[in-house]
């Protein structure tokens, strides 16, 4: 039971923010209903979208409407949704300010869960030339319409810049394009090129050893070490920082991402706006009452929904145990899990933790079904549903009990994607 009135502000109602807020609401409903605890979630989006589904919309023509739900439908009744973005998060003085109405809301604890977004401003010409499967379900539907008109030519897909969310998604696009044009019986007339700034097709060597031979077998051209500098939409030409040029007829690159612009220049974020976050208990910089989860953090792991989910659980569990006075503390294990569809109803996963290197996993139909299962249970999981299944699936990686002492602040060192 909460002794003093407490107020929690959750900035961002995406995967991480919703799972955190709804988990708290489920566990602490008595305190909320008796007015001892208030949970507010701030987000100006009308809808929340299932972002992994963008690939099915872009490359398989799935209806984009099936990938979105009203945000208000995903927030449990005990959580108050403030349908506005925040323009400021002042942790020292414990308040947030909303963007449109300029209202000020105080908090005792704040969770920053503002995600990441494509940032086209970093590469001249990219926004005019690109067809995008990373921004929205409707942009992905436009891309599918474009694919349907293609009869020949060169399609260039891959990575326009770092970082970006869901590290396997550019490789997936190459696999799904190949499958699409084989099924359309146009494959011999359509050249597919995959560009990447890394020195192999996938940044991690183990994953690369599984997928690079498959890309080659399917006659997908791979250009590594290509750091895109600019795009000339008129000449339909990519130029790299190394001075290499690649022509295209259709371009569908994953743009570099950035954090929410409101964090540029704040002292608890790095120069790109990523929140300085403890890799274990997820507190922000040296604040005890601020936490960051999901893509918004500067953690040395991939930006993906699974991480946002498990981080939300850790922060919620620590807050609940603090409020209930149990003294238990929990840590995030760094578990990452990104699925990679490799076409023809096969998929592999990129799985690892802070302590375990990424595993070698052969593509299989079973993995593909696991990915499809996630699509089925996603909406319920945002409300805290199926947590027993996630706990079972992730096992000892779900969270780690860290005893009763607060772990020391850790500085991220390696990027494990
Ligand atoms: C094509 C694609 C495929 C993917 N595939 C996978 C996959 O297979 N597996 C996987 O685990 N992940 C996958 N992901 C990544 C996954 O969707 C994201 O990593 C996940 O949604 C991150 O959760 P989040 O809560 O950090 O951010 P989000 O879910 O993006 O939510 C952020 C929220 O913050 C809000 N916000 C932003 N600024 C403000 C502000 N100033 N004030 C208030 N609110 C704000 C936004 O409106 C948004 O609702 C994929 C993503 C894409 C694009």
Features:
alpha/beta, FAD/NAD(P)-binding domain, 23 strands, disordered C terminus, binds flavin-adenine dinucleotide
CATH class of the largest domain: Alpha Beta
Question: Which structural class is indicated by helix and strand composition?
Answer: alpha/beta
Q: Helix tally?
A: 10
- Our estimate of the beta-strand percent is 15-25%
Characterise the protein shown here.
The chain has 417 residues and is an alpha/beta fold. It folds into two domains: 6-44 and 84-116 and 259-401, FAD/NAD(P)-binding domain, CATH 3.50.50.60; 120-257, FAD/NAD(P)-binding domain. It is 28% helix and 23% strand. The chain contains ten helices and 23 strands. It has helices at 15-27, 29-33, 54-60, 126-129, 137-149, 169-183, 205-217, 305-324, 365-382, 387-394, and strands at 6-11, 37-42, 47-49, 68-70, 80-82, 86-90, 95-98, 104-106, 109-112, 117-118, 153-159, 190-195, 221-223, 228-232, 237-240, 245-247, 250-254, 257-258, 290-292, 330-331, 336-343, 346-352, 400-401. The strands form eight sheets. It has a five-stranded parallel sheet with strand order 5-2-1-9-19. Helix 1 (15-27) packs parallel to helix 8 (305-324) and helix 3 runs parallel beside helix 5. It is globular, with a radius of gyration of 22 Å. Residues 407-416 have low confidence and may be disordered. Residues 11-17, 42-43, 45, 48, 51-52, 54-55, 85-86, 113-115, 133-134, 165-166, 169, 260, 262, 294-296, 303-306, 308, 338-339 line the site of flavin-adenine dinucleotide.
